[in-house]
Amino acid sequence: MFEIFQYGFMINALIAGLIIASVAPLIGTFLVVRRYSLMADTLAHVSLVGVAVGILTRTSPMLVALLASLLASLGIERLQSAKKIGGESVLALFLTGSLALAVVLISSVKGASINFSSFLFGSISIVSVKDLYVMAALGLVVLAITLALYKGLFLVSLDEELAVASGVNARLLNRVLIVSAGATVALSMRIVGALLVGALMVIPALSAMQYQRGFRQGMALSFVFALMSVFSGLILSYYFDLASGGTIVLVTLVIFIISLIINRQKSAARAE
How far apart, in Å, are the Cα atoms of 15 and each of 10, 12, 75, 221, 232? Predict the structure, then answer.
C-alpha cells in the first residue's frame, strides 16, 4: 500500500487532496444551510469556460478558471439580489450557458479535448508542484476569510432577515460566500473534476447533518468525511486504475448512505 508514496504525482495528489478536503466542506456547509447547494455545480460549469480559454490561449487553465468563477459568482449574486430573475433561474442560465460556451470553445481546436477531459472528471497524474502552490495559497485565503467572518456567515446562512436586523451586511457576506465557493471550485477541479466538485462540497455536509450535531460540530464532521473520501478515493483510484473524481464522489455517497442508516436507526430507537 505504501508504494504509492514512492511516486511524486501521488504525493502531489494527496497534498492537493488535503487542501481540498480542508476547504470544500467548510464552504459546502454554509451553502447547504443557505440552500445554495446548486451554486457549486453552477460555478463548476462556469469554471469550464475558464479552462477552455486557458487551454486555447496556452495560459494556466486553473488561474483562468478561477477568474471565470469569481466573475460569474459576482454576476450571479448581483442578479439574485436584484430579484428580477428567480434564484434557480439565474443558476440555470449560468450553468447551461457556460457549459455550452465551454464545449463550443474546446471543440474549435483539435486535440484540446484531451486536456479538457482531465478537468471534467479529475486526474491524479496532472497535479504539478506549481498547482500545489496555487492551491495552497488560494486555500489559505479562503480559510482565513471564512473563519474571520464566521459569525456573520453563520447568521446570514441561518436567517438572512435576522442577520440584517442584527446589523450584519448580508449582501456583502453573500458575495463573500459565493466568491469563496467559486475559488473552492477552481482549486478542486484538478483532483475531483468540474462535473463532480459540487458533490464533494455538498455531500459531506449532508452526511454530517444526519448526526444532528451543532453547526460547528457538523462542520468539523463534514471535514472528517471529506478527508476520508478524498484520501480513500485517491488510493482506490490508484490501485484499481479508476477516475479519481468519480471514485472520491462514490466514497462520499457510501459515507452518506451509512450516515443516513445510522440516523434512521437512532430515530427508530427513540420512537420505541
Answer: 9, 5, 32, 20, 13
Cα-to-chain-centroid distance, residue 118? 16
Choose among 184, 186, 190: nearest CA to 202.
184
Q: How far is CA 74 from CA 77, 251, 267, in A?
A: 5, 32, 41
Give the residue among 203, 185, 153 at the shortest CA–CA distance from 32: 203
Rounded to whole angstroms, the Cα distance separating 141 from 188 reads: 15
CATH at residue 127 = 1.10.3470.10
Predicted confidence (pLDDT) per residue in 110-135, tens digit: 666 667 777 887 777 778 888 889 88
Query: What is the rounded CA–CA span in Å between residue 236 and residue 25?
Result: 21
**The amino acid at 73:** S
Q: Region of 242 please: left (phi>0), alpha (psi -120 to 50) or beta.
A: beta
The pTM of this model reads: 0.87
Domain that holds residue 168: 2-271
If one counts the domains in the chain, the total is 1
CA distances from 200 to 83, 142, 225, 228, 238 (A): 29, 16, 10, 11, 19
Cell numbers found for residue 25 = 466542506
